[in-house]
Specification:
Number of helices: 0
Shape: globular
Number of strands: 11
Strand content: over 45%
Structural class: mainly beta
Helix content: under 10%
Largest sheet: 7 strands, mixed
């Protein structure tokens, strides 16, 4: 079965750092766009960062630019989200997702992602 499993979330004070991991299994990795989304209570799910397969192109949302970075370890079939200078507004459930295509589009849209992990909670106080 195709599966994505996130880990690395937790509670941290403002200004702190966390690194989220997303372990992929059940399919040939590195053929699809991969992305991180987040959703806070009462808010829509939003794209945080994405990596475009086979290129050095990444997308990073303006709200986290300069603080978050997306990376992959293809040998481990794992996607990462390094988060620095965390703010209370970053508190949310963070989800890893696999895109249908190698490109995520100009701004990753939920509609082009077909596999989602269960999420990992990040709380910044």
């Amino acid at each position: 079965d195709v599966q994505l499993v996130e880990s690395g979330g937790g509670s941290v004070q403002a200004g702190g750092s966390l690194r989220l991991s997303c372990a992929a299994s059940g399919y040939t990795y590195n053929r699809n766009c991969m992305a991180w989304f987040r959703q806070a209570p009462g808010k829509e799910r939003e794209a945080v960062a994405a990596h475009y397969t086979g290129t050095a192109t990444t997308y990073v949302a303006d709200s986290v630019k300069g603080r978050f970075a997306i990376s992959e370890d293809n040998a481990k079939n794992t996607l990462y989200l390094q988060m620095h200078s965390l703010k209370p507004d970053d508190s949310a459930m963070y989800y890893c997702a696999r895109g249908l295509y190698s490109s995520c589009g100009a701004t990753p849209s939920i509609s082009i992602f077909d596999v989602w992990g269960p999420g990992t909670q990040v709380t910044v106080s």
